[in-house]
Design a protein that fits this description.
This protein is an alpha/beta fold and about 270 residues long. Helix content is about 45%, strand content about 15%.
Length: about 270
């Protein structure tokens, strides 16, 4: 049972609404069956899919699509692995034809080891795709300037990383993410990549982010299904805490019990 009223649960992305604020990936699970169970346990209604991996899967790929269809979720294809603007745009166009959706999670990678986004190529690719009718969800860094350029290009959703993909380090630049939230109040912001623990997801949600997207932390857990449920609970809890109004940090102690009227006893000699 959710800890928020129904209206507060709803996530809006490009005029579509979802009850869950947790998006989940479909890679790296021990088996397709466990993947399906984990997605159900997460409550996620949007799942990301790599076009390259699944289109090359043959019969295994056909079984994968059967499992996804059974889940009745929204598929968000991505351009994972693309290292140029041309490659990303072409992959997005193929995904639109294959999946019948204008949604695309846009990735343009600059470095093979860190998987850091090529932010210059990302803005260029986003501009091309928006003009072509795509609804773009770009994977970027926590750089506010790049986020603003993506918004100016027509992106109504921006997905900054918490840390490099699969690093499980959590919010490594919390101040920058907090600033981005404050400066882009009308943009849907989703923390994507680098979350390793449910508490990391709660931390992002407590900053006021609209949702989180993750894959490795669930898929590589000893029990992916239990971990998916743990992330679901922390996303809901973090959102509820943000809406309730978090107490800010203080430099000095503040007693929780009032001292006015407290009696004092004096020893009698």
């Amino acid at each position: 049972m959710s800890c928020l009223p129904q209206a507060e649960q709803m996530l809006t992305l490009y005029s579509r609404t979802f009850a869950s604020r947790l998006l989940i990936g479909t890679a790296l699970y021990p088996s397709p069956a466990i993947m399906q169970q984990a997605i159900r346990a997460s409550g996620a209604q949007i799942v990301t899919v790599s076009l390259r991996r699944e289109s090359a899967g043959g019969r295994a790929g056909e079984r994968f699509w059967d499992l996804i269809r059974e889940l009745d979720v929204t598929v968000l294809p991505n351009t994972a692995g693309c290292r140029s603007v041309r490659e990303a745009v072409t992959t997005a166009q193929m995904a639109r034809e294959l999946f019948g959706t204008s949604w695309i999670k846009l990735e343009v990678i600059a470095d093979d080891e860190t998987l850091q986004p090529d932010v210059v190529g990302l803005v260029e690719a986003a501009t091309v795709l928006v003009k072509d009718g795509f609804e773009v969800l770009p994977y970027t860094t926590e750089d506010l300037g790049i986020a603003q350029r993506l918004v100016d290009a027509g992106c109504r959703v921006v997905m900054p990383w918490a840390a490099p993909i699969g690093s499980a380090r959590g919010l490594t630049n919390r101040d920058a993410l907090k600033l981005m939230r404050a400066r882009l109040p009308d943009v849907a912001l989703i923390v994507d990549a680098g979350l390793g623990a449910p508490s990391h997801a709660a931390d992002a949600m407590e900053l006021g982010y609209d949702a989180v997207l993750l894959n490795t932390a669930i898929a590589k857990a000893a029990d992916p299904v239990q971990m998916a449920n743990a992330f679901r609970l922390c996303v809901e809890g973090g959102r509820a805490a943000y809406k309730a109004g978090l107490m800010g940090p203080r430099d000095f102690a503040s007693p929780s019990t009032p001292v006015i009227g407290t009696p004092f006893w004096h020893a009698v000699s």
